[in-house]
Structures are given as C-alpha cells and as structure tokens.
C-alpha cells in the first residue's frame, strides 16, 4: 500500500482534530454542531485509513493485499462490470434530473402559495444546477465519444 494513503489518513485526522478543537473552543457557538460533524468526518476516516495502511503493510498480509489489488484490477476492467457501471451512471443521472425537475416545480408551487418566502433563489439555484448537469453530461459524452 502506498505511503500517500497513510499521509492522507494523517491529513484527515489532523483536520478532524482541528475542527474538534474549534468546536470545543467555541469560537462561534452556533457552528459548534457543524464543527463536531466535520470533526467526526475527519477523525474516523483518518483513523480507518491509518489502520488499513498498517494492517496491509504487515509482512503476513502483504501477499493477500497483492492478490486483493490484482483481483480489483481484473474486476474493474471486466467488460460486464464496465457496462453495468455505465448503465448505473445513466440511470442515476436520469433520476437526479427528474428529482431536480420535480423539486423546481414543487418549489414554484410553494412559492406562489407563499408558503416559502425564499423560493425564487432556490428555484434559480436548482434550475442552474439542472442545466449545468445536463450540459456537463453532454460535454463529457462528446469527449468520451471522440477518444
């Protein structure tokens, strides 16, 4: 396993501890819950990455790790898996586009009924996001088609 995996684990852990100190220090009382969430999101994955690095770099586990990496390489290049990943991405994109479109319509209705005061910025944001996803899909598709 690469050393960069260990360094990434240390970085996650350090950022998590930093957010924990910010939460305990109470710089901004209203943000403490958010800082605690960021602390947990940094500390625990960091610890997991460091544990995995040390676990797989033990002499008795190196052979198993090499076999595991080889199997992952084979599976990632398997034609069936490539096709399934493409289909999963396609279905996910369609669902995301539908959810965004429905959200825009619902927010428009709620805004017209004056149930949500800030509907216009949300509608604008979701509309731009919907358009951006669609345009990015087309650009990436054309680039992949050319290569």
Structure, briefly:
The chain has helices at 3-25, 32-56, 62-77, 79-112, 119-146.
Descriptive report:
- By secondary structure, the chain is an all-alpha fold.
- It folds into two domains: 3-77; 79-146.
- The chain contains five helices and no strands.
- α1 (3-25) runs antiparallel to α2 and α4 (79-112) runs antiparallel to α5 (119-146).
Features:
flat, mainly alpha, 2 domains, 147 residues
How many discrete domains? 2
* Radius of gyration, CA atoms, in whole angstroms: 23 Å
Overall SS class: mainly alpha
**Individual helix count:** 5
Spell the H/E element sequence: HHHHH
Gross morphology: flat
By DSSP, the count of extended strands is 0
Mean pLDDT: 91
| Alpha carbon gap, first and last residue | 31 Å
Strand coverage percent: under 5%
Biggest sheet character: none
Assembly annotation = single chain
Helix content: over 70%
Secondary structure layout plus pairing:
Blueprint (H helix, E strand, L loop, with lengths): L2 H23 L6 H25 L5 H16 L1 H34 L6 H28 L1
Helix pairs in contact: 1-2, 4-5
